[in-house]
Known about the structure:
There is one protein chain. The relative contact order is 0.14. The protein has 17 helices and no strands. It is an all-alpha fold. The protein has 2 domains: about 25-155 and about 165-210, Growth Hormone, Chain: A, CATH 1.20.1250; about 230-418, MFS general substrate transporter like domains (Growth Hormone, Chain: A, Up-down Bundle). The model has no long low-confidence stretch (mean pLDDT about 80).
Amino acid sequence: MQHPSHPPRLLAALLGLRAFKPLRYREYRLLWSGQIFGSMGMWMDEVTRGWLIYELTDSALQLGLARGVQAIPYLLFSPLAGSAADRYSRKTQLLMAQGATVLIYGATALLVFTGLIRTWHVYVTAFLVATAQVFQQPARASMISDAVPREYLTNAIGLSSLMFNVSRGLGPALAGALIVVTGTGGAFGVQALFLFLASAVTWPLLPVAHAARATGHRESFARSILEGWKFSWKNETVRAGLWCVMLTSFFIVPFTTLLPVFARDLLGVGATGQGLLLAAMGVGAFFSAALVANAGHELRRGVIMLVSGVMYGLALVVFSASPWFALSLAAMAAAGLFHVHTNMLVQTVVQTYSPAEFRGRTMALFSMNHAMITIGAMLFGALASLAGPRWAVAIMGAAGSLSIMALHFAMPRARHIR
């Protein structure tokens, strides 16, 4: 963990606020700055890749499949990525993953501009980009824990989430504007530029030694992965956090899959209304991240992550039953707030209670929630076809709340996590 550096005087007052104190630390500033560019590229890809596959196929089914294929690397490679982050240089792993993403985005842009792009290219590059993200996440998350003192870890993760949610609004908007002006090739080119800038900013990071690197080469990857799983299961605090994020990721988070149905068919507000619903969720997420970034270690993280998980599910029940657009907007804002409260505090808990030599592997398990979201989205779609979209969201939201309540009773010490 690095000592705080001295920023220019113009920033001194800002960095005096507790929410921004992690930025006093050089290594965190570099990670945070790099994540700004990386997040912009990632959120742009949410729009650009979908638009490209729809242009090529005019198929809603393939639109969903192109996203679904990105869940596969999280299932296949997350344990390997986490073990690598604990055995080798986390900085090298992060830079290699970001560099690979630059090449993938650049190659996609070139294929589009030359007219050689084909549907299978979109699937292959989607898989490769997701694989690079799988290796990025445990390395970056572990480095955040190395970069700031433990008492500022919640603030640091909150500040990163704050920036992530700003990118969530700006990235898709920029991608849409670029597609209009330059087509998807130009958007992919800018995505490559953003990831290149992310790599350039994080290049000066100092390598951090951790205990696992001293012994990691003496054990196989399989044993290393198994040891990480054993630690995550035996440590009740880490296990409680992972259960919380997996349950919400499966039962609650994928409800956005059905937003087009609610916007067009149930609320009658069209694509513009769908955008406003997502914007409302983004506003809730932004304020949630700001609150956590400011409060930091003072929060009773166990109670808040459990209560937020329950309230997140109840917000979905309200959204499912709402006949009014205004009430739906309010429910979406609440969903965004509770989503970030749950997800961010779980991430902080997992990192805080994982020793440095296990942190990459525990964060890799945390990142497997992406696969749970994809599986949950499939269940949402199946339920919607059987019982209708309102009942699907209501059932899954209620099941999510009940599952978090069950976790509370099954692991009563979880509410005492600080």
